[in-house]
Design brief:
The complex is a heterodimer of chains A (237) and B (435).
Chain A lengths: L5 E2 L2 E2 H18 L1 H45 L7 H22 L14 H35 L9 E3 H9 L7 H6 L5 E3 L3 H28 L11
Antiparallel strand pairs in A: 1-2, 3-4
Helix pairs in contact in A: 1-2, 1-7, 2-3, 2-7, 3-7, 4-7
Chain B lengths: L1 H18 L4 H16 L4 H13 L6 H13 L3 H13 L7 H12 L5 H18 L4 H12 L1 H4 L4 H10 L3 H29 L13 H7 L4 H15 L5 H18 L5 H35 L1 H12 L3 H18 L2 H18 L4 H16 L6 H10 L3 H7 L1 H16 L2 H8 L6
Classes of the chains: A mainly alpha (237), B mainly alpha (435).
Amino acid sequence: MNDWASVLGVPLWGWLFILPTIFAILCYFFQAPSKRLLTPIWRFLDRVYLASGALAAVFMVIILIIIILQMIARWSSISFQGSTEFAGYAMAATSFFAFAYALNRGAHIRVSIVLNINNFTRKWVDAYAMLIAAVTATYFARYAVKTNFMSEMLNDRTQGQDQVPEWLLAFVSMFGTWPTGWGKLWANVGSDWVYTPVWLPQIPMSIGATLLAIALWDNLFRLLINGQSNIKGEAVE
Amino acid sequence: MTELYATAIFLFVLFALLGSSVWIGLALMGVAWVGMELFTSRPAGDAMITTIWTGASSWTLTALPLFIWMGEILFRTRLSQDLFRGLAPWMRMLPGGLLHTNIAGCTLFAAVSGSSAATLTTVGKMSIPELRKRGYPEYMIIGTLAGAATLGLMIPPSLTLIVYGVTINESITKLFMAGILPGLVLSSLFMAYIIGWHYLRKDERPEPEPSMTFSVMFKESRFLIPVMLLVFTVIGSMYFGWATATEAAAVGVLGSLALAIMQRSLTWETFSASLMGATRTSAMIALILMGAAFLSLAMGFTGLPRALASWIDTMNLSPILLIAVLTVFYLVLGMFMDGLSSVVLTMAIVEPMIRQAGIDVIWFGIFLVVVIETAQVTPPVGFNLFVLQGMTRHEISYIAKTAIPMVGLMLLMVVILVVWPELATWLPDNIRGQS
């Protein structure tokens, strides 16, 4: 079980699952202080969710642009290598970035028969569902991040014909390196195009899945403190 | 015996998670994880991400957000007024009068939108007040609208068919083509129902419409031209093999943006609202698909699909009996779940079964859509009912009651599909530009 190696003496699952659960219980019993503690964080998180949703929308437009370019390229017999892969990456990005935003806007659907029985179930079944969902999403996020790192370590490349410029990889890598390493990073960068390493398009997956997990825990805390979550208007779709 | 226990636990967790209102995508992931832990020693987490990543970044899926976006744009234009104004002059001549605008409007809008809720809102926004004003009986207005709006799921583009196609790896273009004829037949059934009402309930007929000259009629129907053009570009380009489903969707988005600009209803607000709305809906479906992808991987390890398929084989069940059983099954499931979720949830098990029984998967997709449409208008969970409740402030039970004849017609449609399967299979077999 090295997937859950201990961090600072506590196994990783303790940090990821047990700690937030304990915090949720504390939130319920000490509502006023936890509200004071969390209010600035909420203000920040709400912006993050919205920004992530906007980013997802940008990727939706990118899908459209890629597909239109692909059609134009085909009609004028210019080759647009790897267009389908790029559209696929944009698809993954638009889905993952939008998860948390969609959750808060009540777009994700669920079977709400038990939920709607009475006010008691509306609160406590909701809290229970959020706990389960948060644990699942955290598990999802944990492995998304792990896979992302593994792809980088194994230098996994795309199976398609899509290529990206080296400078883009170096630029994105800057966010994952200490500033002291930046010189070394850029020293090896040429002007070549290389087959897309899988870690690059997987970054939205890691970020989006993590944000979804955070959003679910966040909603659970808000539900226990304020008596209502941050989810506005459940979906009717 | 342990196998049996494990299966029982697996199914119990499935229903427990879904029933306790965990979001469907995440519930499916949770169940799949339990399945992986019970039935295989493969590391669940890594297998999960590999499956999900492959599915989430696939090219076929890109048709989904674009078709959703197209519908969202059109929803925010003046299309609902245009549909009513353009259709009304022609429909008034039919027995049953303007009630037919409900059916024809839904059929037309369904050809540019993939969701039945969007179809319902767009058409109903205009037709409900107009028909009420003219004195048509309330139960006919609501009932026909509730039924006809489900055509949004069947007539291409259809989100349900995209999801079905992605889940079982079948051509989305073929599925779209398969939906056209059955969709038109179903809409004629609805129209026949209105005509029947016209002759059987003479006392409920409203005042006949004032007469209108042909030149005025043609002038009014110019409002239909843009949407007709859009329908023919999107469906035509797929039929003639000029574009894949995704490309047709991209053309559809551009076309609907153009339509919105022509109507001067495209502002920055409507544009960003349509984009954000599409982003949300597409993320919602993507999460369910991810959960379903992981679940079907786990299902494979449980051996449940194989066992059921071979059980069907030993039972020597005739395909017709199998279809009858599945109809009942999906109707029951549809009472508690929306259509998309019931498709993704069951396909891992049902697909080997129908392949074993020798049922055409394209045909089965259309069959599934009809049954799911029925579920959209049956309580306690029927999304069209909820939408109509929001629009008309009637009780769910009242709306459901008005839709009962439509449910009957949709079940008749299932029978028609079984008797004449060519209805669904002929068009996809004859798409141009494909070998």
